[in-house]
Specification:
Shape of chain A: globular
Strand content of chain A: 15-25%
Order of helices and strands of chain A: EHEHEHEHHEEEHEHEHHEHEHH
Strand content of chain B: over 45%
Helix content of chain B: 10-25%
Largest interface: A-B, 25 and 30 residues
Largest sheet of chain A: 8 strands, parallel, barrel
Number of helices of chain B: 4
Largest sheet of chain B: 16 strands, mixed
Radius of gyration of chain B: 17 Å
Oligomer: heterodimer
Order of helices and strands of chain B: HEEHEEEEHEEEEEEEEEHE
């Protein structure tokens, strides 16, 4: 079990000159600390037009800054919206290869297709098409990275033979992931030999079922890349404090703020009837009631907020259902002061992470990496 | 900074835009094989805030929903209902605020208002199905309020359609209290189609938008369906002047 951090980059109104800069600076400071503390990955989403919820429209820039300021933490570019109107596939291949080079081979590439009308409508994208374009692009991407010359004639995009440069530093190429929001997308990930980057909660039972299904199907996959990335990540909130009351109070505020912001967005399915989006996308994402019954404090059992003992229990539960990594959302709308976010990371690293350290991490903690 | 909320002056709007509701104890109705044509259209974000009560947050982006429903059977006989709704959020729940509503059957107008707070006015509401399009229209007081067309009809599954629960501004008959009544019908689909949306006519003043706030922007989608509609018991009401998180009351299980 490994731990990462996950950024939407949520910026509160009023948007004054320094507001976004302050939030970005805070995020970078958190990433630097997470690197020092032994967190394994930092992920940043790609979102557009999502007022307050996410001002992370150029994650490749933010993540490059993260790479420049850190030594070990892996850089999760995800998800990259694999829809040509958002990102031309050639640019995805070039950009990710460059990020892999400058990060010294620390890139992870998450793929997806956007789940809101806010974004799809903004780029004039037909929601019926996004799954097909995503599928085409994830099949092309490893070839664009690994073949000296590449040409393609497809349904959603085509190109004559050219040499796409640069090539990734990691060989044969960076690990590939799929954002799993809609039910059944974990199967798409497994069939293509890609990691499952879970972005929603279910009950432990439901999640366990999905993980078993994923691992069963991936055994017979046809990998889009040159290797199979059999990994299951899930996303969670983190607020860890030695005082239970403070941990729960701050954590619940984070949870409530995030859920409120997510609900204001316009899910693709709400506005546009289509079988392409069977779930409400971000709307039920991480919603409190989806994460199981609450404890004495009203905190669902799967949420990593509260005192270290409680957070440890939640993480152990995720481990027990087969999840390999939990990526934590640390803040929303800056509702938790920066010093408390940093303190929460310290507390988690001190009291919870040691219960999960494998040999490599232990060696790293001892200065051996 | 507090979150964005609607800016509608509910008391002022209620003078023409609210009917009396007779308590919250209505029995459910089932409307068999209703035809529904529904168009979603983005509207101006900033102006749109003035069309939502202070209970609700605007969707991002703001959008309006235009609906025509033809019910061949109901406890008061056949009727047709046309509505203009502004989508928003009550807390974290997607909801439509009914800006205006027209109905061609006087008994239905009275029952819908008294039972569920529908703000219905008299109007001629029509739904026409042609081989290449579905047309919905509302005419009231001799004026064309709405003409919309669904072009390039295409079959889809009813599971793909999501209608939002609606919020009706109504005045309770016994104490005169102004409330937002949440009505969350259930739909059992027999047929569903989707097509390209087109609004030919919209008289926003006739829809109660006297301030010129309903400005159409980007069209989104249009659907046509045949479905059984279960109009339920009322479960929640909201204070139209307070955010839903603070001002929601459960009135039935």
């Amino acid at each position: 079990m490994k731990f990462g951090i996950f950024y939407e980059i949520s910026v509160p109104r009023p948007w004054e000159r320094d507001t976004e800069k302050r939030v970005y600076d805070n995020c970078l400071e958190q990433v630097m600390l997470a690197d020092e503390l032994g967190f394994d990955q930092v992920w940043a989403v790609e979102h557009h037009f999502l007022e307050e919820y996410s001002h992370c429209s150029a994650p490749e820039i933010f993540l490059t800054a993260c790479a420049m300021k850190t030594r070990n933490i892996r850089i999760g570019h995800g998800i990259v919206v694999c829809v040509p109107q958002f990102n031309h596939p050639i640019k995805i291949a070039e950009r990710t290869a460059t990020m892999d080079i400058v990060s010294g081979g620390r890139l992870e590439v998450g793929t997806g297709r956007s789940a809101t009308w806010t974004e799809l409508g903004g780029f004039n994208v037909n929601p019926d098409e996004t799954k097909k374009t995503w599928d085409e692009i994830v099949h092309c991407l490893p070839k664009m990275w690994t073949q000296e010359r590449f040409g393609y004639e497809g349904r959603s995009w085509s190109m004559p033979v050219r040499t796409i440069l640069p090539k990734p530093y990691q060989k044969p190429h960076p690990p590939l992931w799929v954002a799993v929001t809609s039910p059944g997308t974990e199967i798409d990930a497994a069939e293509r030999g890609m990691g499952s980057l879970g972005l929603t909660f279910g009950s432990f039972k439901e999640q366990g079922e999905k993980v078993r299904n994923y691992r069963r199907i991936i055994r017979n996959c046809e990998p889009v890349g040159e290797f199979v990335n059999e990994k299951v990540s899930t996303v969670n909130f983190l607020y860890c404090h030695e005082e239970t009351e403070k941990g729960v109070k701050h954590g619940r505020r984070l949870l409530g703020t995030f859920n409120f912001l997510a609900a204001q967005l316009l899910a693709a399915r709400e506005a546009y009837p289509t079988k392409s989006y069977p779930s409400l996308g971000l709307l039920p994402t991480l919603r409190q009631e989806a994460a199981g019954p609450g404890d004495d404090h009203g905190v669902p059992e799967g949420i990593a907020i509260g005192d270290p003992e409680r957070v440890l229990r939640a993480c152990k539960n995720w481990e027990s259902v087969g999840v390999d990594r939990v990526n934590f959302l640390l803040n929303a709308l800056e509702t938790i002061p920066q010093k408390d976010v940093l303190e929460s990371l310290h507390t988690f690293a001190k009291h919870v992470m040691p219960h999960f350290r494998d040999e490599n991490q232990a060696a790293a903690a001892a200065g051996g990496r | 900074m507090p979150p964005r909320l609607g800016k509608l002056d509910a008391e002022a709007f209620a003078k023409t835009g609210a009917r009396e509701i007779l308590g919250y104890k209505t029995e459910p109705w089932t409307l068999k094989k209703a035809q529904i044509v529904n168009l979603n259209h983005e509207i101006d974000d900033d102006l749109g805030d003035f069309l939502l009560p202070r209970t609700m947050h605007p969707a991002i982006p703001a959008y309006a929903t235009f609906t025509v429903i033809v019910c061949a059977e109901s406890p008061v006989g056949a009727f047709a209902l046309g509505e203009v709704k502004i989508a928003g959020r009550a807390g974290v729940r997607p909801r439509d605020f009914v800006l205006c509503s027209f109905c061609d059957n006087a008994d239905a107008r009275r029952e819908l208002a008294e039972r569920w707070g529908y703000p219905t006015a008299p109007g001629d509401v029509k739904l026409t199905v042609r081989h290449d399009r579905v047309i919905g229209s509302i005419t009231a007081g001799g004026r064309s309020v709405l003409e919309m067309e669904m072009l390039d009809r295409d079959m889809i599954s009813g599971n793909d359609i999501q209608y939002l629960a609606s919020m009706h501004l109504a005045r309770k008959n016994d104490d005169g209290q102004l409330v937002l009544v949440q009505v969350d019908p259930e739909f059992t689909f027999a047929r569903a189609e989707r097509g390209r949306p087109l609004i030919r006519t919209l008289d926003s003043v006739a829809c109660g938008d006297t301030g010129g706030h309903l400005k159409l922007r980007n069209p989104i989608s249009m659907s046509y369906a045949i479905a059984d509609i279960a109009l339920p018991k009322i479960r929640f009401i909201c204070d139209p002047e307070r955010p839903a998180f603070q001002g929601t009351t459960r009135v039935a299980a």
